[in-house]
């Protein structure tokens, strides 16, 4: 009998990836392609939806070619994606009406201010679990309707469709037959009522968004449809979808309330599973849907950090400090400390727990002795400080003291960063063998729907530890460093405010 595999499509912020997994949850093949980041104005970020789809198609074929398999050996497809990023396209032609407005984009900051000034913050938080912020899709959709010729009218006439990236991919994979989103992605739009589990009419009215453009909300683990036969040379079931951070929580097998993971990708996102009850934050975290399957919803508390690995890309691409992100590790350990330098990578404002759209990046503490290596080290350290900020908020909100942290994502390959993370939180950091947990989670969700894996217990056995980083920093040193970080953040807040 031919071996079968689960396919995960990981539509990240900077690249499209396809990974084929076997029953043990091991990666058997992987293909990846970066796509273009468009920065039309300071603080604005766009993607071309067609490029996302084209690169995704290409990597699917490449991953299958590596194993020399046909569609009959792909047991199902799970999709995971950068969340919130908004795509708007014509129902008839499938053509996007404009570029996708990316989650990091701050163009709706003023619209958000106005909504807050009019006093809608409490109502929106109660219904969606989210603060009013340009991060979420709702105001992005309004902006696209307002600034694209004829779009508002076409939307009224039912001629346009909206989707986050998984919706866009499912639409294309099925040849325009299926228009759905899953619970986790819906919960990031600022339009979805996470208590009543429906698109919220009051918010849709407020933002004047016609419900007809919105996808049907489905579970994270069920067959939504099948790929067009021509695409992979046979039909394959599309059987799972979740936003990348929720998929990572599932991939890390954080199935129980109180379990936490932290993912270091373009941004950095800490999620705690809070079980069947949404927990409201008093410390700047958001309440979101962790997973919806088999008729049950699990919620999560989330600390969203907008810039993490993206800061390393900035050192690479804009400052030209190195050619490969991995080189940052040797540069950071070549100096004993940052020589008093702090980097606050608030390139697109600050997310949790500050929620300041007007914060901007800064390098502080510069003296004549600060070198490239110190700046690289300070940038890496900023990922760990931001994580500390959300970890403290999470402990307060949940009443649970974390005694270790499970990590994953591209940047957690950096041993210096992981050690500094353990030092600064004062708790061990646990890194798994497979740091592609986002894709793993998507594969698991789809695999459970098609019976590739029996149940969560079988999946749990696949999680393997790679390395534990134990804290090893003097308490006084830690306190002093954290104090410096807080001062640096304060200097960055409101920077871009008129
Ligand atoms: N060894 C490393 N040290 C620091 N950062 C790294 C390293 N390897 C990758 N990165 C960063 O991790 C990010 C890629 O991680 P990934 O999980 O693929 O992100 P995403 O899914 O958001 O595209 C990039 O921003 C890159 O700069
Ligand atoms: O691209 P990532 O992995 O940093 O994830 C992006 C998040 O989904 C944005 O909310």
UniProtKB/TrEMBL annotation:
<feature type="binding site">
    <location>
        <position position="13"/>
    </location>
    <ligand>
        <name>ADP</name>
    </ligand>
</feature>
<feature type="binding site">
    <location>
        <position position="84"/>
    </location>
    <ligand>
        <name>sn-glycerol 3-phosphate</name>
    </ligand>
</feature>
<keyword id="KW-0319">Glycerol metabolism</keyword>
<keyword id="KW-0808">Transferase</keyword>
<feature type="binding site">
    <location>
        <position position="245"/>
    </location>
    <ligand>
        <name>glycerol</name>
    </ligand>
</feature>
<dbReference type="InterPro" id="IPR043129">
    <property type="entry name" value="ATPase_NBD"/>
</dbReference>
<feature type="domain" description="Carbohydrate kinase FGGY C-terminal">
    <location>
        <begin position="261"/>
        <end position="449"/>
    </location>
</feature>
<comment type="pathway">
    <text>Polyol metabolism; glycerol degradation via glycerol kinase pathway; sn-glycerol 3-phosphate from glycerol: step 1/1.</text>
</comment>
<dbReference type="GO" id="GO:0004370">
    <property type="term" value="F:glycerol kinase activity"/>
</dbReference>
<feature type="binding site">
    <location>
        <position position="266"/>
    </location>
    <ligand>
        <name>ADP</name>
    </ligand>
</feature>
<dbReference type="GO" id="GO:0019563">
    <property type="term" value="P:glycerol catabolic process"/>
</dbReference>
<dbReference type="InterPro" id="IPR018485">
    <property type="entry name" value="FGGY_C"/>
</dbReference>
<dbReference type="InterPro" id="IPR018484">
    <property type="entry name" value="FGGY_N"/>
</dbReference>
<feature type="binding site">
    <location>
        <position position="83"/>
    </location>
    <ligand>
        <name>glycerol</name>
    </ligand>
</feature>
<feature type="binding site">
    <location>
        <position position="414"/>
    </location>
    <ligand>
        <name>ADP</name>
    </ligand>
</feature>
<dbReference type="GO" id="GO:0005524">
    <property type="term" value="F:ATP binding"/>
</dbReference>
<feature type="binding site">
    <location>
        <position position="410"/>
    </location>
    <ligand>
        <name>ADP</name>
    </ligand>
</feature>
<feature type="binding site">
    <location>
        <position position="14"/>
    </location>
    <ligand>
        <name>ATP</name>
    </ligand>
</feature>
<feature type="binding site">
    <location>
        <position position="84"/>
    </location>
    <ligand>
        <name>glycerol</name>
    </ligand>
</feature>
<feature type="binding site">
    <location>
        <position position="309"/>
    </location>
    <ligand>
        <name>ADP</name>
    </ligand>
</feature>
<feature type="binding site">
    <location>
        <position position="309"/>
    </location>
    <ligand>
        <name>ATP</name>
    </ligand>
</feature>
<protein>
    <recommendedName>
        <fullName>Glycerol kinase</fullName>
        <ecNumber>2.7.1.30</ecNumber>
    </recommendedName>
</protein>
<feature type="domain" description="Carbohydrate kinase FGGY N-terminal">
    <location>
        <begin position="5"/>
        <end position="251"/>
    </location>
</feature>
<dbReference type="InterPro" id="IPR005999">
    <property type="entry name" value="Glycerol_kin"/>
</dbReference>
<comment type="function">
    <text>Key enzyme in the regulation of glycerol uptake and metabolism. Catalyzes the phosphorylation of glycerol to yield sn-glycerol 3-phosphate.</text>
</comment>
<keyword id="KW-0418">Kinase</keyword>
<feature type="binding site">
    <location>
        <position position="410"/>
    </location>
    <ligand>
        <name>ATP</name>
    </ligand>
</feature>
<keyword id="KW-0547">Nucleotide-binding</keyword>
<dbReference type="GO" id="GO:0005829">
    <property type="term" value="C:cytosol"/>
</dbReference>
<feature type="binding site">
    <location>
        <position position="135"/>
    </location>
    <ligand>
        <name>sn-glycerol 3-phosphate</name>
    </ligand>
</feature>
<comment type="subunit">
    <text>Homotetramer and homodimer (in equilibrium).</text>
</comment>
<feature type="binding site">
    <location>
        <position position="266"/>
    </location>
    <ligand>
        <name>ATP</name>
    </ligand>
</feature>
<dbReference type="InterPro" id="IPR018483">
    <property type="entry name" value="Carb_kinase_FGGY_CS"/>
</dbReference>
<feature type="binding site">
    <location>
        <position position="13"/>
    </location>
    <ligand>
        <name>sn-glycerol 3-phosphate</name>
    </ligand>
</feature>
<feature type="binding site">
    <location>
        <position position="313"/>
    </location>
    <ligand>
        <name>ATP</name>
    </ligand>
</feature>
<feature type="binding site">
    <location>
        <position position="13"/>
    </location>
    <ligand>
        <name>ATP</name>
    </ligand>
</feature>
<feature type="binding site">
    <location>
        <position position="244"/>
    </location>
    <ligand>
        <name>glycerol</name>
    </ligand>
</feature>
<feature type="binding site">
    <location>
        <position position="135"/>
    </location>
    <ligand>
        <name>glycerol</name>
    </ligand>
</feature>
<feature type="binding site">
    <location>
        <position position="15"/>
    </location>
    <ligand>
        <name>ATP</name>
    </ligand>
</feature>
<dbReference type="Pfam" id="PF00370">
    <property type="entry name" value="FGGY_N"/>
</dbReference>
<comment type="similarity">
    <text>Belongs to the FGGY kinase family.</text>
</comment>
<keyword id="KW-0067">ATP-binding</keyword>
